[in-house]
Design a protein that fits this description.
disordered C terminus, 4-stranded parallel β-sheet, alpha/beta, 31% helix, Aconitase, domain 4, single chain, 8 helices
């Protein structure tokens, strides 16, 4: 998983409440189990003029050249609600988003972001709206800075706001660790436990235990 530190980039405003996972990636756009090939279907219901078509809707912000290459998505309350489909996060990540800023998230969506190296940071709505307004005159030049180590978001006008994140989640993102890699950070402790446990309960082991081999 790609490590996360400081992201400086274009902030795309989509400040609507209750943007659900079916809006982020409609089910008709999910045609496989791979994490790849989903970016084209991102926000398809709003992004294209006809259902299932690919004619860009010029009124939708994702089609605005001023926000091309956006790395930061500005959302509204309860972002990522609805179904638990992980494809929503995969589509956002493949498109190029590294951060979603919103006042609140669906817990499942927030967890899916963490497991895929995407930062879901809670920031108060007035600050998000201020970011959108500050960047709007020239999004490519008036970029937003998200510093995970310091847990701050800084707008193009210099205004800054903090965001909360758990210690384990912060470590996973900063080091680029998925759940398995995080567990393997404790490999020595796990091995020591298994060796001691085999001495206490030899009857529970059908084959010798050596390092992290299967038992």
């Amino acid at each position: 998983m790609r490590a996360f530190d400081v992201v400086t980039g274009v902030a795309l405003p989509l400040v609507r409440p209750n943007i659900d996972t079916d809006a982020i990636i409609p089910s008709r756009e999910i045609k496989g189990v791979s994490k790849l090939g989903l970016a084209e279907g991102l926000f398809a219901g709003w992004r294209y003029s006809a259902i299932g078509g690919r004619d860009p809707n010029p009124a939708f912000v994702l089609n605005d050249p001023a926000y091309a290459g956006a790395a930061i998505l500005l959302g509204g309350d309860n972002f990522g609600c609805g179904s638990s489909r992980e494809h929503a996060v995969w589509a956002l990540a493949e498109y190029g988003f590294r951060v979603v800023l919103a006042p609140s998230f669906s817990p499942i969506f927030e967890n899916n972001c963490l497991r895929n190296g995407l930062l879901a940071a809670q920031v108060e709505l007035p600050f998000i709206e201020a970011l959108a307004m500050a960047a709007a005159p020239d999004p490519q030049r008036r970029q937003v800075i998200v510093d995970l180590a310091r847990q701050t978001v800084t707008g193009p006008d210099g205004a800054s706001a903090p965001f909360p994140i758990g210690a384990e989640a912060k470590t996973m993102l900063l080091r680029g660790l998925d759940s398995i890699a995080l567990t393997l950070q404790s490999a020595a402790t796990i091995d020591a436990f298994r060796r001691a446990d085999r001495k206490r309960r030899p009857w529970a082991y059908l084959t010798p235990v050596s390092g992290r081999s299967s038992s």
